């Protein structure tokens, strides 16, 4: 299990691949963006010419791609992972995608002798850099055990949450909580600033009390300073809220707050903030009020 093929070397995949290299794995990587490949080779990775080239010699394949269509193409396409991986390969998709995409990959994998897991993550760019991600894994229990050693390089909270697709359902739950917290932190900042109260002092107090959260710890300062360099782009969170709303429909449940947060994130996108960090939800709340 020493050779890893890694496809998708962006904000998350780049540092995750670098951590595997530091841990002693031989990592062969592919990305469409030259700059990302350059960063990867500088970290000690071997550049592949294609997805097929990245996965051909691998014991473990990891993908970290933007959205469901990318994973479907890279996993199931003619030049993709399943077509080109050797039998016995463990394929771990760590992207955030629709649960049915993960189930489709898991259903197609055994015919090629490949074992597939969905293992989306939470913890952001910082978690990827520090190797402290939370990883929620769907798939067979035996395959989860086989993946544990590799996943422990990337994260600290690693939980097998159920069968194929279950990791993605847990990630959808994670994203609706994160979106909701950002919306309310934004409202708190707007309230404080509009009331003539020092927002920095106010948010410092909140961070130490019951309202405290990882988001307040990591982001209150940048939000108050209106620094919205991603991090996690509004466009990607918009995708994730779509997954959450669809999952709720499939489960037959009403999630009213999720619907509202999805609309606020849609507004951020409509206002041209799609490539900013999701903390830029603050701009939407601000524009409603000023
Ligand atoms: P990103 O856009 O920075 O990286 C995705 C990479 O995939 C890009 O470099 C892109 O060039 C590459 N790519 C796309 N299609 C490809 C293909 N066909 N072949 C090879 N490479 C291809 O995105 P990111 O922020 O790293 O997010 C990746 C995934 O992780 C997303 O599903 C996202 O929702 C999830 N995620 C992101 C964060 C975060 O904080 N950024 C946190 C948790 C989960």
UniProtKB/TrEMBL annotation:
The active site is at residue 171. GO terms for molecular function: 2-hydroxy-3-oxopropionate reductase activity; NAD binding; NADP binding. The keyword Oxidoreductase applies. GO terms for biological process: glyoxylate metabolic process; organic acid catabolic process. Its EC number is 1.1.1.60. InterPro entries: 3-OH-isobutyrate_DH-rel_CS, 6-PGluconate_DH-like_C_sf, 6PGD_dom2, 6PGDH_NADP-bd, HIBADH-like_NADP-bd, HIBADH-related, NAD(P)-bd_dom_sf, Tartro_sem_red. This is 2-hydroxy-3-oxopropionate reductase. Residues 165-285 form the 3-hydroxyisobutyrate dehydrogenase-like NAD-binding domain. PROSITE patterns: 3_HYDROXYISOBUT_DH. It comes from the Bacteria. Keywords: NAD, Oxidoreductase. Residues 4-162 form the 6-phosphogluconate dehydrogenase NADP-binding domain. Belongs to the HIBADH-related family. The lineage of its organism: Bacteria, Bacillati, Actinomycetota, Actinomycetes, Streptosporangiales. It holds the Pfam family NAD_binding_2.
């Amino acid at each position: 299990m020493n050779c890893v093929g890694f496809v998708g070397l962006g904000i998350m995949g780049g540092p995750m691949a670098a951590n595997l290299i530091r841990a002693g794995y031989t990592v062969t990587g592919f990305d469409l963006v030259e700059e990302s490949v350059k960063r990867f080779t500088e970290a000690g990775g071997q550049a592949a010419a294609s997805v097929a080239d990245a996965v051909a010699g691998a014991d473990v394949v990891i993908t970290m791609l933007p959205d469901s269509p990318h994973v479907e193409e890279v996993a199931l396409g003619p030049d993709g992972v399943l077509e080109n991986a050797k039998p016995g390969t463990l394929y771990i998709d760590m992207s955030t995608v629709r649960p049915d995409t993960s189930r489709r990959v898991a259903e197609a994998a055994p015919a090629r002798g490949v074992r597939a897991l969905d293992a989306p993550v939470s913890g952001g760019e910082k978690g990827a850099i520090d190797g402290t991600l939370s990883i929620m894994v769907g798939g067979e229990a035996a395959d989860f055990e086989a993946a544990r050693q590799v996943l422990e390089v990337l994260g600290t909270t690693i939980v097998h949450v159920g069968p194929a697709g279950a990791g993605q359902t847990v990630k959808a739950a994670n994203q609706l909580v994160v979106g909701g917290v950002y919306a309310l932190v934004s409202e708190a900042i707007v309230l404080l600033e509009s009331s003539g109260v020092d927002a920095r002092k106010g948010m410092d107090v909140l961070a130490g009390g019951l309202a405290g959260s990882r988001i307040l710890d990591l982001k209150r300062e940048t939000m108050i300073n209106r620094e919205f360099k991603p991090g996690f782009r509004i466009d990607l969170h918009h995708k994730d809220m779509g997954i959450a709303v669809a999952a709720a429909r499939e489960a037959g449940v009403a999630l009213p707050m999720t619907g509202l947060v999805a609309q606020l994130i849609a507004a951020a996108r409509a206002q041209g903030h799609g490539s900013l960090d999701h903390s830029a939800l603050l701009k939407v709340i601000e524009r409603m009020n000023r």
